Structures are given as C-alpha cells and as structure tokens.
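Shipment paperwork, digital attachment
Item: protein structure file
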Amino acid sequence: MKRFGFRPRKNEIMRKDSGQTVAFAGLFLIIFLVVLMTALLQMQMLRASSGITEDALAASGLASALIDIRIYGTTHEIQITNPEQAYARYCHALKENLGLNELWECQNHDLIAGRVEVSAYIIYNVLDDVVDVWERRGEAVRTYTASVGTVTTPEGQMVERTGVYSEITYPVEGAFGFSFEAKKGKLVEVEGIP
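Attachment content:
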C-alpha cells in the first residue's frame, strides 16, 4: 500500500536551514551593532567627562595659586607662601567647578558617579635653580627641596616654574552598570609679567 503524504524535498530543507542561518546572522549583527553603539557612546561620555574634569582642575589650581604679592613686587619672584590657605581655596574652587555637594558627590551622576577624592595636591615654588615642594596626600603633608631639572609631577611632567599640581580620583559608571575609578591630574604653572 502506498502512503500519500508530504515529504519535503532536499531543496526545501536547505531553504529552511539557510533561512534560519540568515535569521541567526541578522540577530547576531543587530546585537553586535547595539553593543558597538553603546561602547562608542560610553567612550564619548568618558571623553566629555575627562575634558570637564581637566578644565575644573585647571581652574581650581589657578584659583589656589595665591602668590605672595610683596615678594613679587620687590623681587619679581613668584612664590606661594601659604600652602594651607592655597589648599583650602583649591578645595572650595573644585567643589564649585564640579558642582559637588557637602559630601563631595557630583549632582550629575552621568559625569561622576560618586565621591570625589583629592589624592594629591602639590605646590612647586621655583626660585633660581631650587624647587621647594609642599605635598599633601590625604592628611599627610611633606616638604622637600630639590634642584630644577630633577623634579617631575606624578604624571612625569618636568617642573620648571612655580605652579600647582592636583590630582583627583572619582568613580565613573559605565554601560550595563559597570563602574570603575578614574584618575585625573593637572599641573598649572604661574608665570609673572616680564
């Protein structure tokens, strides 16, 4: 007895398999594009955050570079003679420039996702061939003297003029809830009028 029924041909089976392959490849491509676009958007946000924090560090460093006007007026030498006052002014300016609250947290969590820490604040007073360094890391303060050409910032930049280096660390939240700690440092040199 003959059976009548539908039996798929090889061509039809291959078309179903190739259709499933195309659907899988299309889905994979869509997922890949979504991940790629998210990564590119995240990189752009990090660049913007980096630029904003660098500008805030530069402005805060300049605000804290309180030179002694009497010394400058008589000898034309630029000296920051009150480091504790300079540090207090730096902290105030940094809070204003980054929009930080009393807990040192940013109101804009897209920019900074948590508490900002000042990890280093260093004053370099350059006089002739000598560099007097006042360094604060957390609550620890140390001072030392070295010769010009031997002192570099923590980022490796040579110190040639009186200036202020500051460094902050802060959490940044990435895509998919991934977060990491970012670090940004900036040297601001003070130059006199020739």
